[in-house]
Amino acid sequence: MTQTIIDCHVHINGYESLKNLPLKERIESLSNTMQSNNVDQAIILSSYTINEERPSTGQILSATENNEKIKVVAGYSISNHDESSIKEYEEYLKNGKIKGLKIYPGYEHYYPYDPKYQKVIDLCIEYDVPLMIHTGDTYTPKGKVRFAHPINVDDVAVDNPELKIIICHLGNPWFLDCQEIIYKNKNVYADISGLVLGDFTEFYEKYLVGKITDFLNYAGEPKYLLYGTDWPISSMKSYLNFVSKLDLNQQERDLIMFKNSQRLFKL
Ligand SMILES: [Zn+2]
Fold it and tell me: Cα separation of 238 and 199, whole Å?
């Protein structure tokens, strides 16, 4: 039987193996890695900033045009984007070119419920696409994690009941807080990406299987959980091995591995 896998969270910034590669080669590297792991579709999230190592949403869209296996979600930051970015993103949304928007509180020191994000929230509601929110650890010491704590997502969810929200990274390490926000708010989802740098160790894998099992026991049928890796930061192969250790029936597995993403991003 054919198994479908959608990785809803990958990057093509110049991290890890992609460092110093031209954009075209980064996309090729993504396609090759997807193919060797039987991943059918992936969603590239553009960054909160644009520089040599971080291509713009427009550049990514041109580089992946006509590639049915790769979709794009546009990154937005209060500090680095302006009114013209909002207009540009609205155009992409109108034409179905982007599948959602992503904000990065913690990296830019704003709470996700800051009124300055409201324009982005309104766009997501108008075009019925999800808003992805980075939560949890920021890796860089310049990030401030209080802005990235998943508890802050509750305000956004309650004040914008029509908005669909994806908490990225399960709020790692605040899994408990994340599961309460998911349980409480029907409009909030979470992806399991970015829980490891590179490959899982046996110990860490066991630890996370326990955390996700607790999560599912608390929050119920996983209509809200999305498979994602954060590739190239996390290894696709190691991630697939990790999810194979979760005790899920076929229906639950299908929801997490592709059905929730198909429904939410309209793939
Ligand atoms: Zn990421």
Answer: 5
Q: Which two tokens stand for residue 80?
A: 């680095």
Low-confidence ranges of the chain (pLDDT < 50): 1
Q: In angstroms, what is the span from residue 12 Cα to ligand 1's centroid?
A: 10
Domains and CATH numbers, the chain: 6-265 (3.20.20.140)
CA of 168 to the centre of ligand 1 (A): 7
Cβ atoms within 10 A of the Cβ of 253, count?
17
Per-residue pLDDT tens over the stretch 91-123? 999 999 999 999 999 999 999 999 999 999 999
| 11 alpha carbon – ligand 1 mean position (Å) | 6
Compute CA distances 156 → 98, 113, 121, 177, 257, whole Å. Answer: 22, 5, 9, 15, 26
Question: pLDDT value at position 140?
Answer: 87
CB 82 within 8 Å of CB 50: no
215-244: per-residue pLDDT in tens?
999 999 999 999 999 999 999 999 999 999
Compute the distance between CA of residue 170 and CA of residue 148 in angstroms, rounded to an integer: 11
